[in-house]
Amino acid sequence: MLASLPTELLRQIIESTIPRVFHSQTHDERQATLCQLSLVSHRFRQIAQPLLFEIVSVQSPEKLETVSEITDGKGWSDVILEVICQRRYDDAIRGSFGRRNFESLARSGKNLRTVALRLERQGVLDLSVLQLLPRESSRFVFRAGPREC
Description:
By secondary structure, the chain is α/β, with parallel strands linked by helices. It has helices at residues 7-15, 27-38, 42-52, 61-73, 99-108, and strands at residues 55-58, 82-87, 114-119, 139-144. The chain has a four-stranded parallel beta sheet, covered by helices on one side.
């Protein structure tokens, strides 16, 4: 019966099972659901796998690079819609987000709508790199962490 459904309808069914926007309490559940759906069949995988990369939450510059490499490698430069870069105070050892990360994101995120930076103890971040990102219908959200005394 599923084989006879048009791909567009099947995609709508899959999308109805997952949240459409980032929320810290539902992101992991969204990703787990899409991973499980990717294992159902080849057809489900073709639909669900790109949805895994629509909303990306990363905690390190290395993970952002990995996401960019994967989406570039699969030809999914139009898939990423929302990126949340989060780094807590205790993650400071992992390094800082910088120009190179946002250059690769600009290549990988042609349909990028939202970039949220939630960085504590980031140090200096040259915001001019955001000019590299798509401007049409994009929004940028910045939240600084607690200041040092």
